[in-house]
Write a structure and sequence with these properties.
By secondary structure, the protein is of the alpha+beta class. The protein is built from seven helices and 19 strands.
């Protein structure tokens, strides 16, 4: 799929831009499922100021944000408009006293390790969360008894008009796998507060999380992490298993035999295969139990027939 080239228009609108703009850039290699079409424009800002300048200068195109591409299905037609991917200018993490200050492009596991190295407890759960801090803020990511809301002090974000916002924990409106800031906010930095602890104990906790993940999740496969949120009073994997979906195949996508709340690309799956498999799982679970599963994995972009000429 090829989109109309927006590069000349955007370059003219933001002549002082320091980040990188790429037209019709493939996204397959930066998503964990390894599926999907291109970004009409992929923008990698140099830093927070560069991001704000670009968004303020370019106001007539849709903007989609992606992180490490873990919790994501990019549809086969690609993503119209501008895809923002934070990278080098947002990947620093440091510890000051009991605070962990991090850019939102930093992988969750790296934040867990920084806290552990400083003997700060309360962030070890991030060892079990794939992806980067930006996504963790957006979806109140959690695992193994911890959630983002438990440790976050403050987050920074840039809105679609280029304005900076500083949000407290209360401002984030955290609920299960959800936060409430406007959809157009792009998170740029987060500050967490840890609890002084024993470095060896924290390291042992992280090792236990690693061992449990390797034993129970298909982490070496092309997957996107947990596919569906746990409905109130239920576990998604149990509902999926009870509906007979363990190992179910659509095209070259499969429900994992190891953990059936994970979908995997067996090698040649399309985004349509993966999403179609997820929808078939939802249908069978609803038919079997009456419970409607809600996607946890984000799905972006268009099908090939919807690509603008």
């Amino acid at each position: 799929m090829v989109f109309p080239d927006l590069l000349p228009e955007l370059s003219a609108a933001a002549p002082k831009l320091r980040g990188r703009l790429l037209a019709n850039q493939p996204l397959t290699e930066i998503t964990w499922f390894r599926v999907g079409g291109p970004a009409q424009i992929l923008f990698t800002p140099a830093d927070e100021e560069d991001l704000a300048y670009f968004l303020a200068s370019v106001k007539d195109h849709p903007v989609t944000v992606i992180g490490l591409g873990s919790n994501l299905i990019v549809r086969d037609g690609g993503v119209p408009g501008i895809v923002v991917r934070l990278a080098r200018g947002f990947n620093e993490v440091k510890v000051e006293s009991d605070l962990v200050i991090t850019g939102t492009a930093v992988p969750d596991v790296k934040v867990a390790r920084a806290a552990a190295d400083a003997a700060l407890a309360g962030l070890a759960f991030y060892r079990g969360v794939p992806g980067a801090i930006g996504g963790a803020l957006r979806m109140n990511a959690g695992a193994y008894g911890g959630e983002t809301k438990d440790a976050l002090m403050e987050a920074r974000a840039i809105d679609r008009k280029g304005n900076l916002h500083v949000l407290s924990n209360a401002d984030m409106g955290f609920t299960y796998r959800h936060s409430s800031p406007p959809d157009d906010f792009i998170f740029t930095r987060a500050i967490y507060r840890g609890t002084p602890g024993d470095a060896a104990v924290i390291a042992a906790e992280m090792d236990a999380i690693t061992e449990r993940r390797e034993a129970t999740q298909p982490i070496k496969s092309r997957t996107g992490g947990s596919t569906f949120k746990n409905p109130p009073g239920h576990k998604s994997w149990q509902l999926i298993d009870a509906a007979g979906c363990r190992g179910l195949i659509v095209g070259d996508a499969q429900v994992s035999e190891l953990h059936c709340n994970f979908l995997i690309n067996r090698g040649n799956a399309t985004a349509a295969d993966v999403e179609g498999l997820g929808e078939e799982v939802r249908r069978r679970v609803k038919e079997n139990s009456g419970v409607e599963l809600e996607w946890e994995i984000k799905r972006i972009g268009v099908t090939p027939d919807k690509v603008p000429a």
